[in-house]
């Protein structure tokens, strides 16, 4: 009888052991099996306003295979009430356990933040906020705050010059304060000792170099003309002449689509109207690219004082030393506009 009981106990023990092994194997396989149906990389965005149910909605939209199992696992690993904001890269082969561990640890992937071809602060704030977590209105408020601008060594008018167009690796959930500090650090890195020496030789500050570069870049689409245009405006500055740069007038009136600059535009009362105010305007009229900044630092030496778009509308310009020569160039261009009925 005892032997029979021992056999039954042994069989029962083996059965339980086998069941545990099988269940353990199934659980192990489930934990490490791909959690998503998709075959391409996806991303999860968790901001400070999202709760666990918002996350579940994102996971479902990314085709998670077993949302219920993920929720149970997240609960067991005490993640449900401890969400960490960030941008998380979801590889198609990631398993449930790795997924929860990644989200719980806040192991996010940085954004390749890019910005260029921007003229005004509103557009800049929109471009940045479309790639990062914070709101565009909050960033715009900081850009227009004199205390913030002054703390970085700028004014409200020239604060935008601190942002050098490039590609930067930044975490999606960065705060505005940390973003501004990051951009100031990048700005200081850009203005190397060699660049500072060139700026000093021209007798312009880095901000003034950027302001002039923004005018240069608005004047011509041809990069090979950048150093020529830069040299032209530097000649005018040295002589104490009005810059009379059409792009600054377009900025002043808020219309960059103007094909002709008329007297009504030239009479606008604005510190950006370089037909009325001597010297450089108080701020940039666009975010100047690095090539545009370099073109000012490495301007072409010549005697040109005037420029006018070529009458063939190629995007190139006729440059002139004298006003009479410039007047002839301008007349040809005006006649071409008239023939094309361009107003």
Would you tell me the structural class of the helices and strands? mainly alpha
* Helix content percent band: 40-55%
What overall form do the CA principal axes indicate? elongated
Give the strand order, joined by hyphens, for the main sheet. Answer: 1-2
Number of domains: 3
Low-confidence stretches: 9-26
**What average pLDDT do the residues reach?**
90
- Percentage of residues in strands: 5-15%
Most strands sheet: 2 strands, antiparallel
Cα(first) to Cα(last) distance is: 111 Å
Estimated radius of gyration: 31 Å
Count of helices? Answer: 15
Q: Got a strand count?
A: 6
Explain how this protein is built:
The protein has 343 residues and is mostly helical. The protein folds into three domains: 76 residues, Dna Ligase, domain 1 (2-Layer Sandwich); 80 residues, no CATH class; 110 residues, no CATH class. The chain contains 15 helices and six strands. It has a two-stranded antiparallel ribbon. Strand 5 and strand 6 form a beta hairpin. It is elongated. About 5% of the residues have low confidence.
